[in-house]
Specification:
Blueprint: E1 2-3, E2 6-8, E3 11-13, E4 20-24, E5 31-36, H1 40-59, H2 62-78, H3 80-91, H4 95-115, E6 123-124, E7 131-139, E8 142-146, H5 154-165, E9 169-173, H6 179-191, E10 199-201, H7 206-215, E11 219-225, H8 228-239, E12 245-248, E13 253-257, H9 263-275, E14 285-291, H10 295-307, H11 327-342, E15 346-349, E16 368-371, H12 377-380, E17 387-393, H13 396-404, E18 408-409, E19 411-415, H14 419-428, E20 433-436, E21 452-453, E22 471-479
Parallel strand pairs: 1-5, 8-9, 8-11, 9-10, 11-12, 13-14, 13-19, 14-17, 16-17, 19-20
Antiparallel strand pairs: 2-3, 4-5, 6-7, 7-22, 15-16, 18-21
Helix pairs in contact: 1-7, 2-4, 2-6, 3-4, 4-5, 9-10
The protein binds 2-aminohexanedioic acid.
């Protein structure tokens, strides 16, 4: 078993604490690697390294920063299979999705490397003569990136790539379930030539490492992806220091199937959306709203298809559904299945923990489909597992009303051939992302990603907006008139 340290100031170092924790394979229980339980003192060391590196990195031309990021993407491309396997072994998503996670990382790093040649500001005319106005983007300083376990390489790459291209130095704290994927990423950034101190990696508990990153005044901005209560905690702690924070939180994403939809296509969509990554995406489809005219047909086919999904070791390419990521996840999923049954929802398939044979040492649960009534807890709360609540609707209006009646607003989908309805849905869904005739998952990196309501606090990651959370805008006025000109007061000269 490999023993990792922390990565501070360009070197792998020991924690000041001897305590370690292990990362394990959720399908087999195999221990994969051990990591230090970092402490506040480790974070302080990382901050000192990031502080020392910041002036040099800020001055390092952005296109050159882009070259290092592109090198990182190129090395990742060479190691895609190995990294994809690590994602699958550590997090449990099936191997095609493990490699997809890595591909999403590569895509984003390649995309954001080019941003080094843009980092665009604006130029505008002045209200005065012989005066020039523009904005430039500047790095914020040391930034903290706190990442989740469900996309153990892609989400770190979204954050690190955008933070680094913008000229910030970074403290990176990965989720304690997936530090190995994160460490491999850090090794690649190192190999790609990132200068010492620019990226620092600290593993350990949220209430020591995480809180220090969030509450230390030298860390100037925070980017966090995770659950709502943790997100609110991060946001409120950082608010005391007026620290900019971007939080990307939960979802309760609906898919609507209208009576004119291509039913088979819609069913393939919901299977992928609800049970891909075992439902552990913040964009996962957790509610299906079916028009009453096609309800029976969809339900029959959907249950039949779900029962054919092969559950097993996610490294096996024939497997469709792997384990959930941890024992805690398994408990949550089983708890919600129990809640659903007690609330009177009808469990149409799945929902059992798998035991025996290959399942004994893993956290396997059958994908579950409930026929539910809107308002039940399983239709309102984020479960983050393979549990789908299906509801029958009379028409589009009812579908949209139910779709929007949740606290979250990340992703949404409608299957219809009616172009008018599709455009109405784009307008009506209260979410940051809407899909037409495609599942709620599968966002592409060159478009903004994020949600409304309790899904976030207004920011968008990735896409053209990726650098917004990691740059300060400076407004510049250049007066070349050789005299004092007074905005709002000056009159234009007569001889104009
Ligand atoms: C997440 O679910 O946490 O839309 C991120 C998707 C991915 C990103 C999801 N590309 O499925």
């Amino acid at each position: 078993m490999q023993k990792y340290g922390l990565y501070i100031d360009g070197k792998w170092v020991k924690s000041v604490n001897d305590k370690t924790f292990e990362t394990t394979n959720p399908a087999t229980g195999e221990v994969l690697a051990s990591f230090p339980q970092g402490t506040k003192d480790d974070v302080l060391k990382a901050i000192a390294a990031a502080e020392k590196a910041f002036p040099g990195w800020k001055k390092y031309p952005a296109p050159k920063r882009g070259e290092i990021i592109l090198n990182t993407a190129t090395i990742m491309r060479e190691k895609k299979d190995e990294l994809g396997e690590t994602v699958t072994k550590e997090m449990g998503k099936i191997i095609a999705e493990g490699k997809g996670d890595v591909q999403e990382s590569i895509d984003f790093l390649e995309y954001i490397a080019g941003e080094g040649r843009r980092l665009l500001g604006e130029t505008t005319p002045s209200e005065l003569q012989n005066k020039f106005c523009m904005t430039v983007r500047q790095p914020i300083g040391i930034v903290g990136c706190i990442t989740p376990w469900n996309f153990p390489t892609a989400i770190p790459c979204w954050k690190l790539g955008a933070a680094l291209i913008s000229g910030n130095t970074v403290l990176f704290k990965p989720a304690s379930l997936t530090p190995l994927c994160a460490a491999k990423l850090v090794e690649i950034f190192h190999e790609a030539g990132l200068p010492a101190g620019v990226l620092n990696f600290i593993t350990g508990p949220a209430n020591t490492v995480g809180y220090e990153i969030v509450e230390n005044p030298k860390v100037k901005a925070i980017s966090f992806t995770g659950g709502v209560s943790a997100g609110i905690d991060v946001y409120t702690r950082a608010a005391k220091l007026l620290k900019p924070v971007e939080v990307e939180l939960g979802g309760k994403n609906p898919q609507i199937i209208m009576d004119d939809a291509n039913i088979d296509l819609a069913i393939e969509g919901v299977l992928f959306g609800a049970f891909g990554s075992q439902g552990q995406r913040c964009t996962a489809t957790s509610r299906l709203l079916i028009h009453e005219k096609v309800y029976k047909e969809v339900m029959e086919k959907l249950v039949m298809r779900t029962n054919t999904l092969k559950i097993g070791n996610p490294l096996d390419p024939k497997v469709n559904v792997g384990p959930v990521a941890s024992e805690e996840q398994l408990k949550t999923v089983l708890k919600y299945i129990d809640i659903g049954i007690k609330e009177g929802a009808k469990l149409r398939c799945g929902g059992k923990k798998l035991t025996g044979r290959i399942y004994e040492k893993g956290f396997f649960v059958q994908p579950a489909i409930f026929e539910a009534k809107h308002g039940m807890r399983i239709t309102k709360e984020e479960i983050f597992g393979p549990v789908l609540s299906v509801m029958k609707v009379k028409n589009y209006e009812e579908a949209i009303k139910i779709a929007n009646d949740v606290e979250y607003g990340l992703s949404s989908s409608i299957y219809t051939k009616n172009i008018n309805l599709a455009f109405r849905a784009i307008e009506d869904f209260e979410t940051g992302i809407t899909y037409i005739n495609a599942p709620t998952i599968g966002a592409e990196v060159h478009l903004p990603f994020g949600g409304i309501k309790n899904t976030g606090n207004g920011g968008r990651e990735a896409g053209t907006t990726a650098i917004d959370e990691f740059t300060e805008i400076k407004t510049v006025f250049i007066d070349y008139s050789n005299k004092l000109q007074k905005a709002q007061i000056e009159e234009l000269s007569e001889n104009m």
